[in-house]
C-alpha cells in the first residue's frame, strides 16, 4: 500500500511539473524568482495541445510531446548519474549513453502516464529568497524551489524541485514529494538490480529497454521497475 501511494504521488508530481510549465502572464512571471519561472513556463502551443482531446487519447503522440516539452527544463544527464550512483564511475561511455537513453524514456513515460490519472489541481509557489536559497555546489549554483499542490477537498502536499544552473539556465535534477526524493527512490530500485548476481549497468539497461518497449505497446500502464 505504501509503495502504491508513493508511486501515485510521483505520478501526480510529474503531472504537476509538466502542466506547471504552461504559459503565464508577464505580471505573474514578474513575481517569480528566476528558478521558479522554468517550472511555470512553456510555449503557447502546449496549452492548445492539452485542450485537444483526440491528441490526449494517442499515447505515442503524448509521449513524444512530453519528451519535447520537458527536455529543455530537465537535466537528464545529471539525473542518470545520480540514480546510478557509485556504479556510474565504473561504467563505460557507451554504457552511460545507453542507460541515459532508456532511463529518459522511463521518466518521459511516467510524465505521459500522468495525463490520464490526475485533474483539478493547482500549484502554489512558496516564497523564494534567492540571496539565502542559492547555494554553491562544485562551482554551480543550486536551489530548492518549494511548492504545494492543491486539490479540491484534499489537504495540500509539498512538491519541491532541486535545480541547478547549466549554461545560464535553471534545470530540474530531482523532485521531492513530501520529502521523498525521486532520485533516491530510483537509485534504490536500480542499485538493488545491479547488485544481483551476474548483473551490471548494461543488464539493467537491457531490462529498462524491454520495460519501455512493453509499456509503450500497452500505452504506458507499467511505469515502475518491479
Task: Describe the fold and architecture.
- The protein has 226 residues and is α+β, with helices and mostly antiparallel strands.
- The chain has one domain (2-217): Tgt2/MlaC (Nuclear Transport Factor 2, Chain: A, Roll).
- Helices cover 52% and strands 19% of the residues.
- The chain contains 11 helices and 6 strands.
- It has helices at 2-19, 26-30, 36-40, 44-51, 53-57, 59-70, 76-84, 93-114, 130-133, 182-194, 201-217, and strands at 122-125, 135-137, 140-151, 154-166, 169-177, 180-181.
- Strands 1, 2, 3, 4, 5 and 6 form a 6-stranded antiparallel sheet that branches.
- Strand 2 and strand 3 form a beta hairpin.
- The longest helix has 22 residues, at 93-114.
- The radius of gyration is 18 Å and the shape is globular.
- The two termini are 15 Å apart.
- The model is unreliable at 23-28 (pLDDT under 50).
Please outline the helices and strands.
Elements: H1 2-19, H2 26-30, H3 36-40, H4 44-51, H5 53-57, H6 59-70, H7 76-84, H8 93-114, E1 122-125, H9 130-133, E2 135-137, E3 140-151, E4 154-166, E5 169-177, E6 180-181, H10 182-194, H11 201-217
Helix pairs in contact: 1-8, 6-8, 7-8, 7-10, 8-11
